[in-house]
Specification:
There is one protein chain. The chain is mostly beta strands. The protein contains one helix and eight strands. The longest helix has 7 residues. The chain is globular, with a radius of gyration of 17 Å. The two termini are 31 Å apart. The mean pLDDT is 95.
């Protein structure tokens, strides 16, 4: 007798735009704090970055976890754990990356880092939650 296949419906929230075309200065970052994540298992983050024509470095997205909303993983520990993704780079170009971020804690902070030491970039961040 063959086993049954159980198909569970996926529950998604509506997209939430956190910021759009936010200027991120050289060597700086834009951040979003997500809370109210109870009952969800993952964040699907949509990150779009527009580089200036004079840019020489790209961008990176880092996510940090916190049990209390005050004490977050350090960026260095997040990088060491692989809780980051680098976007491809082209001076004057636009890149978008969709990221699947597991929810391991009640609070998640998402950073969009500008790795360029001399030029700003413009970042857009949206997300949905998955049950």
């Amino acid at each position: 007798m063959l086993g049954r296949i159980l198909v569970l419906p996926v529950d998604r929230t509506r997209p939430v735009k956190v910021f759009e075309n936010r200027e991120v200065g050289p060597g700086s970052h834009a951040e979003a704090l997500l809370s109210g994540l109870g009952g969800y298992s993952a964040i699907v983050a949509y990150v779009r970055v527009r580089y200036s024509p004079g840019a020489s470095e790209g961008a990176r997205v880092v996510w940090l976890y916190s049990p209390d909303g005050a004490n977050f993983d350090s960026v260095e520990e997040a990088l060491s754990a692989g809780n980051c993704e680098s976007l491809t780079f082209e001076a004057g170009g636009t890149r978008q990356r969709t990221l699947l971020i597991p929810i391991f804690a009640p609070y998640v902070k998402i950073l969009v880092e500008n790795l360029d030491p001399g030029e700003s970039l413009f970042a857009t961040l949206s997300y949905i939650l998955l049950r």
